[in-house]
Amino acid sequence: MLSIAVVEDNDDLRAAIVNALGGEGHHVVGFDCAEAMAEQGQALRIDLVVVDLNLPGEDGVSLTRRLRTTNPEIGIIMMTARTRTDDKRIGYESGADIYLAKPVSLDELSAAILALSRRLRPVLSTPAALMLDTVRLTLGGPRGATALSAPEAALIAAFARAQDHRLETWQIIAVLEQADRAPNRNALNVTISRLSAKLRQSGTAPHPIRAIRNWGYQLCEPIVLT
């Protein structure tokens, strides 16, 4: 989980981003201008900032330079309608880690945050990987072992073997069919919800499985198969 500040003057867009990232387990606060962040965000420990360039008052480039100077380790994602090469160069030179051209889908933003989090919090990916015992059908984690059904174990194993721990919806259905359970797409949501509950029971973050809109799901926890 990261502490994220969203600096965006469009109220609807800011609210959508704050809600979406909060739903993924991050602590997210929104600001409508750089001055509001400077005034209200001093007491917050912020890991990453999503910043628009066209802000009222201090613009996003100036804010980025200031943040990079005062906190060199902070993650900064610029999100802007400026798409010219010169604009991107200025964005990166001012200190941005990632430059996204609007319109930006929430899935693309989430993927950028996930990629950047590997630098910001490398410790998260190493200490407490879950252990899936494919023989005993148990999932071991910081809070102990959790019993799994055969379909649940098969699905976690498939996530663990997939690139970036991502599976398309049809792949998930195929795995469950092989495990003698063939859900339709509505029942699949129930299966994912139950599996997420068992992952949390083993000691994961609040949202161990992330839905990728119109595509599938991603397991957001490191898994070791035994």
TrEMBL record:
Keywords: DNA-binding, Phosphoprotein, Transcription, Transcription regulation. One of its GO terms (biological process) is regulation of DNA-templated transcription. Residues 121-221 form the OmpR/PhoB-type domain. Coiled coil: none annotated. Residues 3-117 form the Response regulatory domain. It comes from the Bacteria. SUPFAM superfamilies: C-terminal effector domain of the bipartite response regulators, CheY-like. This is DNA-binding response OmpR family regulator. It comes from Ancylobacter aquaticus.
